Sequence to fold (327 residues):
Amino acid sequence: MRGSPSSRRLLQRFRQLTISAIGSVKIKLLLACCIAFTLVVITGRAAAFMGWRHHVTVGSSPPRKGYTILINTWKRNDLLKKSISHYTSCPGVDAIRIVWSEPNPPSDSLRGFLWKTLKSNSKDGKEIELRFDINKEDSLNNRFKEIKDLKTDAVFSIDDDVVFPCSSVEFAFSVWQSAPATMVGFVPRMHWVDKTKGSAEYYSYGGWWSVWWMGRYSMVLSKAAFFHKKYLDMYTNQMPASIRDYITKNRNCEDIAMAFLVANATDAPPIWVKGKIFEIGSTGISSLGGHSDRRSQCVNWFAAEFGRMPLVSTSVKAIDSRHIWLW
Ligand SMILES: *[C@@H]1O[C@H](CO)[C@@H](O)[C@H](O)[C@H]1NC(C)=O
Fold:
């Protein structure tokens, strides 16, 4: 057997086999180590994450003064009840103001329900103030009427068909506190100069897809945004009446006008905050586009009224660093 070439070749094969087997064992070991390491990191992170969730003591001061929820509603009492039941559980809410533009005043059963909800949710002697602001005429400008006796500077403006978890709202509030002149919101929109329309400066309005495609935005919609209460006064008393008339007549674009107003006052872009959105009404008209031609008309009309295009675009997005694992 010794020396026969075929047996030597066999031996060589055998050695190669064992070497490659050992090699694969090494690779497997390495893989196992990697997986174990990843698991350790993830569980560590998760533990830290849970810790943040459950005892929020480290360095997070309670909101200084809180905010007022300004909710716009129209003949959807069930949504209003859901929405308000939810927000009364958020720690920073100081007051809730309901913009009411229906011909009939809020019913006793609605008032009763909301009052009970408020009572059952008020903790530690803290009471949330709830008030209806009843309007005679039905105009979209109602939602930005000046409110004389607001106690907080911060206003969180929302529609009755979207709900945000308290954690998202409180985070947006903290972003707003670091930039109180700015509009801080969850729903970004975009405008751009449309060269295909021939004339030199024709602006197009873009919805969610445009923001996603371009990675930029220049407005956040008032269906879910924080702004300073002074802008309610400016909207109602200082902005040209022609703009409010246009909005009443066209039943659209009050949110774009507010974006223009704030941009004109600050010469700065708004801030888009990452947050979970739950659409409870799910009509989805504005979110799915289709009416962007009318919105484009508003943008062009407002730019003419302001005498310039005040909107500034940006790609900044504020994200809660506790909720991202990779930096
Ligand atoms: C825009 O801002 C300027 C400068 O602050 C102000 O004078 C003007 O009235 C504002 N325009 C509108 C339409 O609010």
In short: The mean pLDDT is 83. Residues 238-240, 264, 306 surround 2-acetamido-2-deoxy-beta-D-glucopyranose (CB under 6 Å).
